[in-house]
């Protein structure tokens, strides 16, 4: 076996982590692209209308549109260094009002807006450097969040859940 190096420096270790993080960053972009493509297939079947007790498919799409814009903007602002403070609870508390307001928009327009937001976030994930995506912001409730955390969990995982929901509903 050929030994690459007998001693590693902190810079070597950080470079190794950056390579791993770049791989993961591109995997996140791929996941967002895939869920967006799934939404593009199911979205045109969504009929306008509100649900009585449960969210209608239109309201689920309105929620997807809202969270896609909200988290896409926050991920961009944190990764670009434009903000170091976020209030995720306030955004979450606006969810129902946002869904109600966005449900006034035709499903085809919501779909168009959402897919455009996804494309911008995919582009960001494909081009941002690893250190920028690891940039942290202080959360108003205490603690910190990274742009990568927000991309992975409240954006992509959440989108996958709701697109699964729409696919089940419209099958």
Q: What is the number of strand segments?
A: 3
The CATH superfamily title: dinb family like domain
- Count structural domains: 1
Rg calculated over all Cα atoms: 19 Å
Give the % helix. 55-70%
Distance between the termini: 54 Å
CATH architect. name: Up-down Bundle
Q: Choose one word for the global shape.
A: elongated
- The succession of helices and strands, N to C, reads HHEHHHHEEH
CATH class descriptor: Mainly Alpha
Unreliable segments of 5+ consecutive residues:
none
Largest sheet: 3 strands, mixed
Q: How many distinct helices?
A: 7
What is the structural class? mainly alpha
Q: How much is the average pLDDT?
A: 95
What is the third-level CATH name, the topology?
Four Helix Bundle (Hemerythrin (Met), subunit A)
Strand order of the largest sheet: 1-2-3
């Amino acid at each position: 076996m050929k030994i690459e190096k007998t001693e590693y420096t902190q810079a070597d270790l950080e470079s190794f982590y950056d390579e791993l993080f770049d791989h993961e960053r591109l995997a996140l972009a791929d996941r967002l692209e895939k869920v967006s493509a799934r939404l593009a297939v199911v979205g045109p079947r969504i009929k306008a209308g509100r649900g009585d007790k449960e969210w209608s498919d239109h309201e689920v799409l309105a929620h997807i549109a809202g969270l896609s814009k909200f988290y896409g903007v926050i991920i961009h602002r944190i990764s670009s260094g434009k903000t170091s403070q976020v209030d995720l609870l306030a955004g979450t508390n606006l969810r129902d009002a946002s869904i109600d307001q966005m449900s006034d928009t035709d499903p085809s327009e919501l779909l168009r807006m959402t897919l455009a937001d996804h494309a911008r976030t995919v582009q960001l994930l494909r081009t941002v450097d690893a250190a920028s995506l690891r940039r942290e912001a202080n959360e108003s409730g205490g603690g910190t969040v990274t742009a990568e955390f927000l991309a992975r969990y409240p954006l992509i995982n959440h989108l996958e859940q709701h697109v699964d929901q729409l696919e089940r509903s419209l099958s």
